[in-house]
Amino acid sequence: MKIIVLAIAAALALPSTASAREFCGKLENHYGPYDYRTEKGKLPIVDGAHFTEEVEAGIRGATDELGGDLDYTLRAFPNHHRALATLSRVALRDKVVMIPKTKWPVECYFLRAQRLAPNDAVVYNLYGAYLSSKGQRDEALAQYKEAIRFDPDNAMFNYNIGLAYLKKNDYEKALYHAHKAYDQRYPLPGLKNQLIKAGKWKDKPAEETPAENKPVEETPAG
């Protein structure tokens, strides 16, 4: 098992995605693969049997060991947001890169999700959070950038990428994304507090409409 994991990790590190795809398996599945965002009608048959509340909480499996049910769910719906979140959370909790009874390391499931749905911003954000928790700052930032590219105004994505820039001491970008997150009333104060602690927080200047851009009142005809 250890040798297999190391081989896959090496493939994932390669610039080309061809080797990663070879190790991470084909997407074709006996049920699916389906896009989690657009094929909700097919979800109940999978979630009802394999992604129960206890599976999502990372407590125990439903029809198999926990990893077996997560694997089934993510083969049917590779970009199943909640299942990906559980997968990464359990792996971090148990300090493993590959959960028992899954077919691939955690990163493979994110790569498979991106292959199925390359414009799914949530997948990039979840992957970034997983990599950040492992201390892979540059890799996490790259994923967050993709999430922002597909959903630039998302408050959570802006908050997360703001934290990523803060860890790299890029305060200007961290502040920019903090403002975007808090403009939408993002509830967590951590990013702002850390910028304050670093002496880099600045309130966003009030935006005023230039006189030349203000709507011109039309004179009624007649």
UniProtKB/TrEMBL annotation:
Record bears the keyword Transport: no
Cross-referenced InterPro entries: TPR-like_helical_dom_sf, TPR_rpt
Family annotation (Pfam families): TPR_11 (PF13414)
Keyword Signal recorded: yes
SMART domains noted in UniProt: TPR
Domain of life: Bacteria
Mapped TPR repeat ranges: 121-154
Keywords for this protein: Signal, TPR repeat
Residue ranges, annotated region (Disordered): 199-222
Segment forming the signal sequence: 1-20
Record's protein name: TPR repeat-containing protein
